[in-house]
Amino acid sequence: MTSSVVHRNMEKVARAGCVWRRLAAGDGVRVCAASPLTPATGGGGDPLGHIPPHSRMKSNYSSVPQQKPDWNRAVSDAEKIVGYPTSYLTLRSLLSDEMSNIAVHMRKLVGSSHPLLKTAKRLIYNGRNNMQTRGLIVLLISKAAGHLNPEELDQDQPAGVSLSQRSLAEITEMIHTAHLIHKGVVNLSPTVFDGTTLQDMEFGNKIAILSGDYLLANACTGLAALRNTKVVELISTAISDFMEAEFIGDRDNQGNPIPNETITMQDWNEKNFLAAGSLMAKSCQATLLLAGHSEAMQKKGFEFGKEIALAWQVYSDLQPFTDLYRHPPGTAIDLTSAPVILHLLHDNSLLDYVTAAGNSMENCDFKKIHQLIMSGNAVEEAKQLCQSHAQAALNVVQDTFEPSDACTAFGEHHKCSQDLLAQTFLF
Amino acid sequence: MASSIRGRAVRLLDNFINQTLVLSTRNISRSLSENSIRGDYQGCQSSVLLTSETRGRARSSYRRLSSAGRALRQVQEPGRQASPLSPAHRVSLVDTDLRHMFDDIKKELESQFELQEIAKYYFDGQGKAVRPLITVLMSRAINTHLHDEDRLLDSQRDVAMAAEMIHTASLVHDDVLDVSDTRRGKASVNSIHGQRKAVITGDFILSVTYAMISRRCCPDAIIAMGEIPKNLIHGEFLQMGSKENENERFAHYLKKTFLKTASLIAYTCKTAAILSGADDSLQEVAFQYGRNVGIAFQLVDDLLDFVSSSSTMGKPAAADLKLGLATAPVLFAVGQFPELNPMIMRRFQEPGDVQKAFELVHKSDGLEQTQFLARQHCQEAIKVISTLKPSEEQKALITITDKVLNRIK
């Protein structure tokens, strides 16, 4: 089934959100030199960190149980600080005629295997944990930097985050979600799907396109309402970057990326900056711009957003090798993910398996590929890469939001959110 | 270069075959300022030379129209002759503005990947480019009205380009939604590159458009432009649902028509006015003109779906019926042939429905009534635009309503 490959890809994308928890749990600990805790070792990682809270009890893999990260608490602390429940970020746009219309149609999809179903499920069940972290980061950095035009804060004075900045956080989430949904559109060909499946897929595509377009259209209107042309430009180009990333490198017939002999980490960087870094970087930059900060400060925001998104991405790339509970060997792997490329740099015998799969990566012997990569150093190298990006993000926070900085004038809340930004890496 | 100018001029002239070409002094002076006297002049000359050939082609197309189409054309005849401005003149009014538009759009869509080829695919100059044409004319008409200066602002030109780009982005998504394999007489993006890339390309074109207009437009202009995607998608949702009640059904259809087609023209006209510094009531004039012309445009489109052959439209005939859509001609025909009602409700899904509905519409006066309604909207458009200070562009905006009513593709 081609669709199952697509599913797995979709899942992978969604799990990107887990890195936050992971950063909080394992890698982050190592980033902080002062931490006395034992770093995660081996391929096991910290499965506790990336299983939704309600299913945590089921987990019996635990190579590093020393520390139990409380992501939910971190989020609710963060929400208190920014004064806004992030789980409502996209909810407002979901409570509309159009969306209830979609819900009605979505029902017809139940039972089919269209990727949209999984995306929708995640939006509803795991919203808080997986999907809303981008908006939360935008709010946190807004809070940490402070607003230079207090008169714009108006009734939001106590929270220290302006209405525009909240709106921007929502827009960031909407764009990201729309992109996830549109990426899940399935290429249809009568040769791959039989009659009923083809119809299901056709219908699923229709709903996916409409709901994605709906979110994007709302993002457009929301962006325009910010009344800041530079922000519109920044965020619009971030969307273009997303789309460009989809066209980088070779792809199979369902759009799954395929590596070649010459692929390097430079390629990985370029692609993932476009696919993940750009939106985060530009949203962080834009929120500082809205708060009236200097270009130098905005650049820092950009750096922070980029680094955290890349750390996030490596973490997500690592999942098939560290979280064997959710990715038993044999599960499809993104063949241009960081561990695969890092392995290819030492040993390109892996490409034989790729060539053997022909035009559809679902034919790949993922079990063999998994074994091959686990036998080398690539996973360890990828973990180091994840740390270095996380460290870079942390450095930006520490250098930029010094207590001596002008923005500390904005009081206790500032200090608090600064701590929180640091904490997300620490606990 | 000359041949593409010729191609566009010929297309624009298609409906005005009996009129003579006047090369106005104004056009010459504009050409001078463009430093391209020879090119422009030659372009216009070619149009003259081609006119007789075009005339023959257009006539044979008319002959192919159904009796309803012919009758409608006769009804339109007096209106056409009454138009005060020669069409060639109108073409020359905006030709310099639009000449490089497609090249500029392609420049905006530059990307290092395959994406750019797919994104540029429809910007081959083969489209009617009605939306940019109207935007440019509206910009110049409002600029004249307010400032006695008809120079087109760069930002207004961006908006004209944006009109075409947003339209194309929505077409790319529409073709995936409708599982359509052809567009403008060539294979659709989704049929060549697959659904996934088509959807992503549509998003790309839209985002590039907003990045482009954000560089030169003011926040108010961007707010007006920001309404368009929301309207388009809202219209798409309305199209998915249908109403039991006949009266509601027509209101539903008109609302959908505004959202899906007219809103783009209405908001780009409004944006052009905002950029010129128009106040609220003047913005409303621009908006209402665009809204009415847009609705008329779609009504004629729905009518042509019944009377035009696939080779002229670039899409198969009765395409709407096949998609299960009941457009104005059908909704009018229901009055005379109530047996259409159940077919509308089941979206023409049963075998023979499309054929039967097609015949009934032709038997009814649905096509005439659709044309009549389109005409009313055009008259409303003329009424609002007549409140502007007279200018050549204003006259062109009036004659363009005839083009909308009498187009054959």
From TrEMBL, chain A:
It comes from the Eukaryota. Pfam families: polyprenyl_synt (PF00348). One of its GO terms (biological process) is isoprenoid biosynthetic process. Residues 42-69 are annotated as: Disordered. One of its GO terms (cellular component) is transferase complex. Keywords: Transferase. Signal peptide: none annotated. Transmembrane segments: none annotated. GO terms for molecular function: prenyltransferase activity. Belongs to the FPP/GGPP synthase family. PANTHER family: ALL TRANS-POLYPRENYL-DIPHOSPHATE SYNTHASE PDSS2, GERANYLGERANYL PYROPHOSPHATE SYNTHASE. This is Decaprenyl-diphosphate synthase subunit 2.
TrEMBL record, chain B:
Residues 67-86 are annotated as: Disordered. It is found in: Mitochondrion. PANTHER family: ALL TRANS-POLYPRENYL-DIPHOSPHATE SYNTHASE PDSS1 (PTHR12001:SF69), GERANYLGERANYL PYROPHOSPHATE SYNTHASE (PTHR12001). It holds the Pfam family polyprenyl_synt. Its EC number is 2.5.1.91. It catalyses: 7 isopentenyl diphosphate + (2E,6E)-farnesyl diphosphate = all-trans-decaprenyl diphosphate + 7 diphosphate; 6 isopentenyl diphosphate + (2E,6E)-farnesyl diphosphate = all-trans-nonaprenyl diphosphate + 6 diphosphate. One of its GO terms (molecular function) is metal ion binding. It is an enzyme of class 2 (transferase). Keywords: Isoprene biosynthesis, Lipid metabolism, Magnesium, Metal-binding, Mitochondrion, Transferase. Belongs to the FPP/GGPP synthase family. GO terms for cellular component: heterotetrameric polyprenyl diphosphate synthase complex. InterPro entries: Isoprenoid_synthase_dom_sf, Polyprenyl_synt, Polyprenyl_synt_CS. SUPFAM superfamilies: Terpenoid synthases. GO terms for biological process: isoprenoid biosynthetic process; pheromone biosynthetic process; ubiquinone biosynthetic process. Heterotetrameric enzyme that catalyzes the condensation of farnesyl diphosphate (FPP), which acts as a primer, and isopentenyl diphosphate (IPP) to produce prenyl diphosphates of varying chain lengths and participates in the determination of the side chain of ubiquinone. Supplies nona and decaprenyl diphosphate, the precursors for the side chain of the isoprenoid quinones ubiquinone-9 (Q9)and ubiquinone-10 (Q10) respectively. The enzyme adds isopentenyl diphosphate molecules sequentially to farnesyl diphosphate with trans stereochemistry. Heterotetramer composed of 2 PDSS1/DPS1 and 2 PDSS2/DLP1 subunits. This is All trans-polyprenyl-diphosphate synthase PDSS1. Its cofactor is Mg(2+).
